[in-house]
Every structure is written in C-alpha cells, then in structure tokens.
Amino acid sequence: MDLKSFLRVLKRHKYTIVIIPLIAVIITYFLVRNQGDSYSSEAKIATGIVDQTQRGIGDIVGFQESEINQEFSNLVEMIRSKRILEQVSYKLMIHDLTSDKPFRPPSKLVLTLNASARQHAIDGYTAMYKKRQALSLFNPDQNGMNKLLESMKYDDKSLLDKLQAYRLQNSDYISVLFDSENPELSAVVVNTLCNEFIGYYGELVKNNQQKSVDFLFNLLQVKRDTLEAKMMALKDYKTRNHVLNLNEKAKSLYGQMADFETRREEVDKVSRSTAAAIDSIDRQFKPGSRRYSESNKLDVTQDLISAQSQLHAANDAYVQSGFNPRYRRSVDSLKNVVSNRLGSLSDKYIVNPLATKQDLVDQRLSLQIQNDLAVNSKGAINKEITRLNNKFDELVPHEAATQSLERAVDIASQEYMEILQKYNQASLESSFSTKLRLLEIAEPGQAQPSKKMLLVILAGVASFIACIAVLFILFFLDNSIKNAVELANRTKAPVLGNLNKLSDATIDLRNIWESNQGGKDLREFKNLMRATRFEISNELKECNILLINSLSSGEGKTFFALNLAYAYGQINQKVLVIDANFDNPVITQSVKPKLYLEDILNNYSEILTVQANQKISFVGNKGGDTSILEISSEQRIKEVLQSLKVIFDVIIIEAPALDALNRSKELSLFGEKIITVFEANKNISDAGKHHVEYLKNQNDKFIGWVINLVDNDQLISE
User: Of 378-382, 500-504, 623-627, where does mean pLDDT reach its minimum?
Assistant: First the structure.
C-alpha cells in the first residue's frame, strides 16, 4: 500500500472531504438549535451487600468478588426492568392527568381526550399501579393507554433511554440518574423509581422468606411426628419384652459369668490337688491295715459320712442361690460338724500295729471330704454358668432390635434438630427489614452544560472521519492501475511513456502540432508525447515497422497512433499510418484517405508515388468482418511492407485490440516491433493477463507499454 498514492486520492477528493462535513455540521446545527436544556437528578441506594454495618445476625460473610458483582448486576437489571419502570410511568401519567402543573405539555393524543376518557385513563392507570400489572397490547383499552404513555414519552423505553443505573466503583451503593428537560421531572422519576424498586424488592424478599418459613414449619411438623413415632416404637418394644436397660443387664450377667468362671477354676484346682493327695496316701496303706483301721472307726465314720452328705446338699443350695448369705451359715455349721467328727476319729484310741499311720488316715479322710465338696460344687457351678449363658443369649435379639430402633430415633432426632435450626434462622431473617434503603434522595438539579456545540463538532468530525474511511476503503479495494510505475510492477514489462488526460472534448491534432497555442495540459501532452517518441525510437533502432495495439478496445490506441505520427513528422520523418483495424476503422473515417489497404495488397502500390512527398501518409481499410490474412497471403503482405520501408522512415500500423484474438495476433506477424496502449485507472482482467503473457512471449518484438489518460497527479516526468 502506497501512502503517497492515498494522499493523492485525498487531494483529488479534497472538495468532497470539505463539503460533506460542512453539510453535516449545518444539518446538525439546525436539528439541535431548538433543543432544550437538560436537567439531571441523582439518588443513591445502599444495598448492604458489602457494608459490614448493615450485616445481620444470619448473614453469610466472605462472598467472592464474582458473586458480589453478580448480585449488583441483578439489582441494577431489576431497577431497569419493565415492571419497575411501568410503575413510574403510571405515576407520571396519573400526575399529568390530574395536576394543573404537569411535568410535560400534553401531547396531541392527550388533548383529544374528553373528560370521561381522561377519567377512564386515570382509573385504569391507578388500577394497574395498585396491582403492579403490565399493560397488555392485545387488549384494545390497555393498548390505547400504552399509546398515551408513548405520546408523552413516559413509556418504559423512553424512560430507559435517559436512565442510568450503576454501582459506584467497588462501594456498597447504586447510583440512579435521569436526564430530562424538567428538573422536577428528573427528581420525581429518580425518587419514584428508587422507592418502587425498594418496595418491590422488599416485598419479593419477604414473600420468599415467608414461603421458606411456612415450608420449614410444615417440614418441622412432619419430622417431629416421625421422631415421636420412632420413640413410641422403641418404648413399646421395651415394654412388651420387659427390657429395662440391656446394657446394665448385660454387664451384670457378664460379671456373674466371670465370677462363676473364677470359682470353677478354683474348684478344679482343689479337686485335682486333693485327688492327687488321696492317691498318694492310698499307696502307703496295705489292704489289711486299712480294714483294721476302718473297722475300729466304723461308727465315727458313718456319722462323718452323714455330715458330709448334708454339707454337700447345703453347698449345692448355696451355689444355686447365687451364694446367698443365708445358705452360707448352714454350710459353715456343717463344716464345723465334719471337723468335729474328724477330731473324734483322731482322738479315738485304737490299739493297732499300724498306729503310726493314724495321721495319714485322718488326712486322707479330710482330703476326701474336700475332694467331694469340690466335685459337687463344680457341677453346681457349671449348671449356673449354663443358666447365665442362656439368659445372656436371650438378650442378643433384644439388643439388635433395640439398637435398630434407637438408631432410627437418633436419625429422626438429628433431622428434626437440623430443620428446627433452619426454621429458627428463617424466622429470624424474616423478622428483619430489607437491607435496601434510599441513602440520598434526588433533588431538582441544575441545567447541564449545553451539548449543542459538542454535537455540531462531533457531526463534523464524524463525517470527516467517515469520508476518510470510505476513501481509504475504496483505495484499499481499488486494484486499478493509475500510473506507469504500477503498470510496470504489475506486468513486469517496461513502460515507454505516460500521457495525461486532456480536458478538451474535441481536439484538432494538426492545430496541436503545427501551432504553439493551447493550455497547460496540451503543452504537457506534447512534451510527454515527444518523450515517448524518443523512447520508441531508441527501441526501434534499425526497425521501422511499429505495430500499435491494446488489451481491449477504447483505450486510445488510435489517438496515440495519430499523435505519434505527428510527433515523428515534427522531426522531418516520413511516416505512413496504416489503419488495419477492420472492426473499428476510426482513422479511415476521420482522415478519409485515398489509399486503402485492400487495394495496396492487390498490386496497386504504384499509387503511393503520389503520396511520397508528404510527411504523413495514411492508408485506410474498407472495414468488414475480415482479417489481414483473409485479404492477402503472408508472403504478399511482407513484400508490400518491405517495399514501403524503402519509401517511409516509420510505418505505424494500428491493430485491433487483443481481445479480437486472431485478427490482432495475425498483424503481430508483420510488425517488427509492438507497443501496447493501456488506459489508466483500469484493472487487468483475467483475459488481459493472458494477453500480457502473449505479448511478453513475442521475444524481442514487444518493446513496452504506453499508459494513456493518466491523471495529472499521477504523471511521471521523463
């Protein structure tokens, strides 16, 4: 992108860039000159969201910043909502319909209302305000009321255009502003809007809190009934199964079982020790001595056996009674009797050769009694342990059922306590008032600085920027070739000259080249033409047959061919111009030559002797749908051109445009050098790109371009 080129575009459209902003400034001035002053009123609402001084007992602390911003966004959108704005609209309309000093002059639609229609409108707005309802456009009556609001600019959309509501930086406050042409109207709108919002928000919060309290109360009743039912089921089970305290009872049984286990171990120990001692004593007695001793103590022994039997019975009763102290006295008494009988056996004097073993006999009897007591007690203890185990086993199913019921009671109790806590919290919150409050009420404000001049300046600046932007977009999207440099860069071929655009509608070539008259653009054209002639001459060298064509028709190759001929005539060169453009023979029609190409190619070349003394000679064509090779053969054409080269210094052949395909390309066979005319401010089409490649493939024949109709600011001086 060339900045200089864009600046040239701006320079070329300088009047457009000046006139359009000027028109925009004038139009804006007339639109805003009768605009009234604007008055702004502001109120502030304290929300209590981030203000610690307004935090209640149950308020949650530690909100994330995103949650706080979301809360403020919800409040601001609620302020701007249609429901709140319509409440303000109703009050404003009721005021203007009932007051002698309305905020705004009555609209045309309001002036058409008669007394009954006015009263009907007042009643309708009042009813809608009390019910907090929106107007339905499907209802014809309410649709008419909405049109009244729109006519007075009191509808929600009109109010919203002048309303601003936003959070003041990171504070706890929301600012509400309204601009209007009436200071009292601005203040009333802001205060009414804030009060309606606070009232609606408070009512909404209270309703939600009451719904929460009612729901939690009903749920609390259900949980309480469930808890009572679970407790009653546990009570009934314990009563029905005579369960007082399973834990204590299990502890008691377990203690008794442990005690009896200890006693059984002691009895086993005594039984084993006494049995071993008896066996040891028995081995020391012979059978004869034992009979002798027992025969002498038979009476005492029988008494001892009887006492031992009674002691065994008393000991069993004592064990079975759970070691009742009352049986303990009987056991102790019988033990004393047995001891006395054993003493009698020891004291009885019996003459026996075995008297030395008397003590062993007494010991054996005593050990036998102890062993019998131990064996007897062991059976009783085992029965008691079995009985205690059975009673303990009976407690297991009761314990499982009791635990299940107690667990159900605990769960029901926990749920009940949680619901009770939430209910108390909700009841506490519902008893508090809402945290929203009007911190600063709106007062009628001063007139705002006039924006008329600012609007006028903005209109001029905006239109100026828009013009620049449009021109830039057009320049950016414009792929047309405007000067010789762009043509050379685009085609990768040399440009031998560039010709400026002439302002005159009709041009006399003879007058241009044979007189020094003319304006600046004509003089510039002649200079550029001379420079182009010089470049062409350098490229021709020993050749003198120059073929002139173009990519498409209408690019000025005829005008260039004639001017090039006159330019060569100025340096006293004999020039022959051959009009070979059979499709559009402009040279033939304008010059009306006496010689025609068809005649020359048919052996009429002797006629040229008449024209040989002129600087510029012309050969026309008779036109028609034909081509050069259809008129004569290639060999004949070359012979004629060779004969003409002897007479003329330069032979200029105007060929059809390359979009004529074979008609133009056939002539390329006879031109020694080819130059192509291109019109400035045009783009090379896809077909033109193929023609460019064709020209570049003509080896050394194609010497370059001449760009025509170039704007003066795009000219490149030679």
Answer: 378-382
